[in-house]
Design goal:
homodimer, 232 residues, alpha+beta, Jelly Rolls, Arc Repressor Mutant, subunit A, 2 domains, 4-stranded antiparallel beta sheet, 40% helix, globular, DNA-binding
DNA sequence: CGTACGATTGAAGTTAGTCAACGCAGGTGG
DNA sequence: CCACCTGCGTTGACTAACTTCAATCGTACG
């Protein structure tokens, strides 16, 4: 059986800061679960009976209109927390983008545990505040940036996030070459664009020598300053 | 001197749940401040040395590009919490939309107090999670909704929020008639549109008999079901 | 080798943005 | 008291950006 002691995100997730006894108690509440790419973990508007920590892989949080338009409202990487504790039903679906492993808890169990462990709640609060900051800067992008600016900002963010979570060779700083965990459609859903616009902007950047696209989902940043300038 | 005991948001803000002694301690750290309409409380990228509770009035949180495009990324109503505790600098400016009264704390003082009062941190966490939910549904609007849908959604949200915070006669449920705390430009900045588009959509709804516009900033919802249908 | 799916490219269409003129109400001063 | 000014909002004509629709490409996979 898998346990918290050997968990790779042990020191980065909200569990960091709990002592061994507390970890043991939390361990008893949760269980590991694998989610394959494309598989949902939580459905929009369902009673969201679970919360989870991401151990490995990348997942998308999406919100949809009745007529099927989709917006990706968040992306969860290893050590990120997923779900909506404390009595509210989450209004976003969670679907794995890559094969992923998560550590799931029933929301009730987690709520109870969290309320009696302030250190855990504090970690969760810090994480939620940081996520809110990121989400707000994404609002700026969605509301006010042009397609080229959106693409440039997106590539820079991916280069940062993927470096952090160790998807690339162990280097410090942003990754210059990485594999997107998104299809073109999903990039479009993150940026509030269509797949065609995304494709055209990618090709344009490639033709201008700012990036290279060695494979469908691979990106190499050739001219980071140019990207920064384009990002607005 | 003003004190927490007589505070109108005492039971709705994050201070709710603190006992009298704790309230007294918190009271000693904070001070009341008036902010007139248009006056800033926090500047984007400043070191954000303060956090605050809104007592009265409405404030906007904004994010701007270098070339001056602005996006309103949040709106704070009475009992809402403002600012970025725990060591990060806020990336949003806060400016009063109406004359407002807030209860401000130095961030350091607040951080220290919060860390030793789990009940307060819990309230703040619940509030932050709720705000994140709202922000995410706004991402959907910004990324995927059309101008008419944006306007309809906006009017419905205003009708809910303004009813809650008691800007309208004491009624239960959403307000049908209310005064917007926003200019046309600010509505545009919330929705990621231009002032002209906002104006045109407003007049269109008026001509269709869905709303009435008795004065510049006043709205009366005549046909709520129609608005709901338009909101997408 | 052929199929299927995602990605790209092209041409045409729409939506919202831009630029510019005008309207209206509130405030100010003659 | 009225004329004028000023700031915000509205309206119109035009434009640009992005979407839509449709065809084609390319690669992974059976």
């Amino acid at each position: 059986m898998s346990s918290c002691e050997t968990c790779v995100v042990r020191n980065r997730a909200i569990c960091a800061g709990l002592d061994n006894q507390e970890i043991l108690a939390l361990n008893a509440l949760g269980r590991r679960r694998s989610v394959s790419a494309g598989e949902p973990l939580i459905w929009e508007d369902d009673d969201s009976l679970l919360v989870a920590n991401v151990i490995e892989g990348v997942l998308k949080l999406t919100s949809s209109t009745e007529d099927g338009r989709e917006q990706i409202v968040g992306v969860a990487y290893p050590s990120d927390f997923i779900g909506r504790p404390f009595g509210q039903t989450s209004k976003a679906s969670v679907v794995a983008l890559t094969d992923a492993r998560v550590c799931v808890f029933s929301r009730n169990d987690f709520d109870r545990f969290a309320r009696s462990h302030p250190e855990l709640e504090h970690k969760l609060l810090e994480r939620t505040l940081a996520e809110l900051d990121r989400t707000r800067s994404w609002m700026m992008l969605l509301g006010r940036k042009t397609a080229p600016e959106k693409i440039a900002t997106f590539l820079l963010e991916m280069s940062d996030r993927l470096a952090e979570s160790g998807h690339t060779p162990i280097t410090r700083g942003p990754a210059t070459r990485f594999t997107l965990p998104f299809s073109r459609q999903q990039v479009a859903d993150v940026l509030g664009l269509t797949i065609e616009t995304v494709s055209r902007q990618f090709t344009k950047l490639k033709n201008e020598g700012v990036i290279d696209l060695p494979a469908r989902r691979d990106v190499e940043i050739l001219d980071r300053p140019a990207l920064l300038a384009l990002a607005g």
